[in-house]
Amino acid sequence: MYFNVYSIPLFISCIIVCILLYYIKDYKKTPGSKYIPLLLSSIAFYSFFYALEISSTDLQTLMLFYKLEYIGISFVPLFFLLFIMSYSGKKNILPMPLMAFFLGISITTILVVFTTEHHTLFHRIYYINYDGLFPVLDYGPGIWYWVHFSYTILCTILGLILLFSMLPGTLPVFRKQIAIVILGSSIPLSTLLIHLAGMAPWGIDPSPFSLTLSAIIIFIGFTRYKLFNLTPLARSLLFENLPESVIVFDTKQRILDYNNSAINDRYIKPKDVGMHVSELPEPWCDLLKRKTDATEKKNIEIGEEIEGFPFWFNVTFLPLHDKRGNIMGQMVIIRDITSIKNLEESLLQAKVVAETASRTKSEFLANMSHELRTPLNSIIGFSDAMLEGYSGELSPKQDHYLQHISNSGKQLLNLINGILDIAKIEAGKMELSLETIYIEPLLTEILSTLKPLSIKKQIKISIQREKDTNAVVADEAKLKQIIYNLLGNAIKFTPEGEVISICIGMVEKMVRISVIDSGIGISPEDQKKLFRPFTQLDSTYSRRYQGTGLGLALTKELVELHGGRIWVESEVGKGSKFFFEIPAA
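^ thats the sequence. predicted structure below, dont judge the formating
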């Protein structure tokens, strides 16, 4: 055994393939990558033992290395086809029975070659030919020899068909990658046909050299232009169907890629690929280079005037990183939001108009306070004067009518006062006269006002007060109105003979007052609309309890005007607890 000048290149090619095998691990997440190590290993195995074969001088040693070659060469067609199927996104294009048949051919080839001394399936005859530059194995091919090489040619052609089928549905930047893989796949097929035709010089099989060259070319094509961890075809389908315009730049701000939306929206033209962003026409040049040096995701809104019309764009600048985290380019995603901006502007104008109308209404109602109250006060005043001045002189019917006029006038006045107070608050015209108010005297005054109603329903009102809770900062009239509304509602909705509790306590710098009744209670759904103006929880309430739905809405406004808050805790049939907080003195 000796090493000649022809075996040395084979050992070198084997080393090159092993180097590729080492670096392919960096692309383990890329489609098709799991079959490339198997393909490279088979090529390396083949090259190594072929180098040993042509370095052998006796038939026994030469045949041993020849047989070992076929452990590699028998699987090269299968691994190549599996790689192309995965790379093209068509893993299931061949049925499993057919793939099992292909695997069976590879395994059968190895078995036939290793037992070639006992049959003529692979070699009808074999011997060492010493007539060339160095001893080589010469043989007469058997039937399985042609089966094996027909199978090799079939797998290669199927792979090339899959690669060519990818070209129409793939963007230009990935067509380059596919073209490189096609080139790398075509070289071994060409050299195999040359070898089978007996045209190889000096009897040397050129397949190991062509496979190594093919592996290098495929590796370059496989690892270049990989901007996404998708097969080119699948990536194109996703990329092209995005409604947003997408343009991809390299680190030198040159255009690498784009999708159909970018063409349709006239941001870019096919001829612009490879151009620097500064070479694009305005306004796209200015728009696209706003954040081309961004190292992290940026999202901006840009307004541009195009052909005399205003346009708005939402632009996202997204850096693209390689496996090691280094920036390898940038993706710019453009979305035309002109219609959204126009809608926002219309809504904003409508909001301003609505707010102006609402403010005008509130100001009108607030300014009408005197005009509305004056005639009502006159009606109530004259009714009461007649009842008092002509007491005993009126007939029962006349007395009843005057009482009805007076009561209706007072109810109407209370309703108008509530409406006007809410209108004042909405118009920003409600002013508070803040002062220190002691709670207990205020409660005593309110309870005395409500005493006739509580006595009539035999309701007992208890007061519980924590120590050091004495005074609040509030408008006295408004605070009376808040407590009066809550207590009045509690008495109204509490059955006869029950108890209402008033609790006074401190929470941080706020005084918390709660009114607890044992009335009808409120469901969780009704609690959500409890403080809305003109809202009754049930239409039967207004008939039974004679309410307008203004009291709690006004109470909430007054509490919040003091810088406080109000809420309720209730359960149907088990009463309610109303809480409010205002600043302590």
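The chain has four domains: 7-223, 242-336, 343-426, 434-583.
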